[in-house]
Amino acid sequence: MKGGKALKGEVVISGAKNAVLPIIVGALLAEDICTINDVPDLADVATISEVLEGLGVKVSRNGSTMLVDSRHIDNITAPYEYIQKMRASVLIMGPLLARKGQAKISMPGGCGIGTRPIDLHLKGLEALGARISLEHGDIDAKVDGRLKGARIYLDFPSVGATENIMMAAVLAEGVTVLENAAEEPEIVDLANFLNSMGAKVRGAGTSVIKIEGVDSLSKAVHTVIPDRIEAGTYLIAAAITGGDVLLKNVIIDHIKPVIAKLGECGIDVIEEDNNLRVISNGQFKAVDIKTLPYPGFPTDMQAQFMALMAVANGISVFNETVFENRFMQADELRRMGANIKVDGRNAIIEGVEKLTGCQVKASDLRAGAALVIAGLVAEGETEITGLQHLDRGYENLVEKFTAIGADIRRVTD
Ligand code: UD1
Known about the structure:
Blueprint: E1 8-12, H1 17-26, E2 33-37, H2 43-54, E3 58-62, E4 65-69, E5 77-78, H3 80-85, H4 93-100, E6 102-106, H5 119-127, E7 131-135, E8 138-142, E9 151-153, H6 159-169, E10 175-179, H7 185-196, E11 200-202, E12 208-212, E13 221-223, H8 228-240, E14 244-248, H9 256-265, E15 268-272, E16 275-279, E17 289-291, H10 302-309, E18 315-320, H11 328-335, E19 339-343, E20 346-350, E21 359-361, H12 365-377, E22 383-385, H13 387-393, H14 397-403
Parallel strand pairs: 1-14, 2-13, 5-6, 9-10, 17-18, 21-22
Antiparallel strand pairs: 2-4, 3-4, 6-8, 7-8, 10-12, 11-12, 14-16, 15-16, 18-20, 19-20
Helix pairs in contact: 1-2, 1-7, 4-6, 5-6, 6-7, 8-12, 10-12, 11-12, 12-13
């Protein structure tokens, strides 16, 4: 890609990756066929579909609509290769336990952004009555009869643990109260989907979720919420290039923390119904960022914001409180001329006049997005490798950027 073009035009935001993955898994709970609309075409969606197919579930896709037929489940195991490839595969535990009384997954190892344990998932499932054992690297969870509702307090509002426990509890006997639950919009979308299947979930989107178990769940039709992280990524891309871009299909409330930070930098984001327009003159000042669970500033936007701050006027301090090792983009941005110092969970970014293009490597999804953003303003050519990470979470990235005037192309698959 070559930097220097101000982005102009419209981008339609796709369905949210982090909403669709648990929703597809949630369809395991229905003894029927579920229809999911606005499913983005992403590598992670393909992976989770394969995980379900491995369980005997039929998954089919027509454009952005997906049908998940979970009438027959004949396997309760997710193989190692899938858990390693995509951590969200651990979400099958809750639904499988609830429906089949057993689930077996391999214990996830480390990943690019930290150790990421699943202790909170397991504690919650145990509280619902599951017996959990670890043998030869596999986690085996079993319950005799039905899971039983319980009061569960999460030590940290983990998104995945909230989802896993919620999906187990919808078919449990009695009431589950989940305290210090994650409040992310994706949790609300999953709860809405489960409720349209006949579940009784109340309070999703707050820190206390109450779930009254039901005997069975049936088919549902659901449209996935727009991807707030994809939207935030294009906002920053427009802002850094001094562009004028209209984002269509957004839920503005979900993006407030990013809009607020851009405002603090001096970049105006105009809000209208389901659209956002950013008009930037390419000048912005440095601001500090602290990542937090929703509604705080999202950790999934931290890398992209770092690319913006790399060319801001002044010095910014980043504090990453959600993940322990999530500044992988810093080394690569430095290769492009950025002035960034990382110390544990903190980073100091001193804005520079310009970045210069070079060969860089995407180490994970959002780090990859940060490099694309940097490449949009870097002098000369930037060559990004590790595109498989970007394919996990950005639908038609090259096409969408090309349509708003970026000089970007994909050289290999
Ligand atoms: C989800 C998102 C991911 C996002 C993250 C935080 C999906 C598919 N992925 O990941 O994009 O960055 O939320 O917004 O939705 N933790 C534990 N024990 C647990 C679970 C988590 O210690 O049992 C820790 C993690 O190591 C991490 C923190 O809690 O430090 C947040 O993790 P969590 O909210 O669970 O993130 P994910 O659900 O994995």
